[in-house]
Amino acid sequence: MSSATKPELIDSFGRTVRDLRISVTDRCNFRCTYCMPEEGMVWLPRTEVLTYEEIARVARICVERFGVDGIRLTGGEPTVRAHLTKLISALAVLTVPAAANSPLAGQPIDVAVTTNGATLALVAADLQRAGLRRINVSLDTLNREKFKQITKRDELASVLEGIDAAIAVGMAPVKVNAVVQRGVNDDEIIALATFGREKNIEVRFIEFMPLDAQAGWLNNAVVGQDEIVSTINEVFALEQIASRGAAPADRWRYLDGKGTVGVIPTVTKPFCGDCDRVRLTADGQFRTCLFATDEFDVRALLRNGASDDAIEALLRRAVGEKWAGHTIGQVSFVRPRRSMSQIGG
Ligand code: SAM
Ligand code: SF4
Fold first, then answer.
1. 244 pLDDT band (50/70/90 cuts)?
2. How far is the CA of 139 from the centre of ligand 1 (A)?
3. On the CB side of 51, how many CA atoms lie within 13 Å of its CA?
4. How far apart are CA 177 and CA 192, in angstroms?
5. Could you tell me if the CB of 28 is within 6 A of ligand 2?
6. 19-343: CATH homologous superfamily?
């Protein structure tokens, strides 16, 4: 191991890195309007995409040397990559070092997946057997026509089946992510909240971010946290749950005891000051923020015979340069060159 004795990685603003988000592919079987264009997306050549062995090596370095205790697989759509269970099995055996400053010290890391759920009914049991304990499924509407309009696919029924399958195989928690767009699905906030209450799963409403591939994002298409919460509170009384720590969602509990609901307020109440996340893109670029304009080429090191020490040094340098936070809504904001599905949401 390098000079640091304690497995930790702290940026220049005092934030500790704990969470690694790995995009396993830039490809997807949906074309959500807020993420990808319907046609014309250019996929990464397969040779540029990290192998599972390469991903697992970066993950191991982050866990062993930095005390990362959570890894989330995303994309693109992670379930469209063949043999995803192989990667999950390789990650599920990683153990947080005993000396790490983590509630999971000495225990297996927390592995999670974010999926559109289209094929989840088919793969939930395999994912669970491979070691996946929790999952987030994206679902923005319960209306079949609107689902087609948003995702460009007629797959609402499959996604609903997928959510049921994840619950049935015992994944816990199962969460639903819903991106709220003004004039698109803001009339479904109560329907989605009700869905979560009935299924006993947490729905997390996400503010629409300027990461759509078509650069069509407008500030007035964002439905902010305050509006989402007051809309729900008018129908189902809510009480805020104290602190979110480094988690991106602010959370509320239903006063009638029917579970919890979350909001990820990236635009109206950025949580950059508590951010503990770093990201690895499908093509092996390390990013310290969704909105970062710089990337660090880990793939080049992986493929040039670099040592673990050299990879650790690159990741430490990247985190040393992590900025204080994004500036969405300010004149200084610069859209990242790549869109959501290419970075990994
Ligand atoms: N394909 C998977 C899915 O849809 O869950 C994983 C990748 S997707 C990029 C990850 C999450 O980002 C999803 O919950 C999706 O709804 C969200 N997302 C995509 N584009 C977004 C945007 N412009 N603003 C806010 N959230 C977005
Ligand atoms: Fe695919 Fe997820 Fe992007 Fe939708 S949000 S197009 S499912 S990557």
1. low
2. 10
3. 6
4. 10
5. yes
6. Aldolase class I (3.20.20.70)
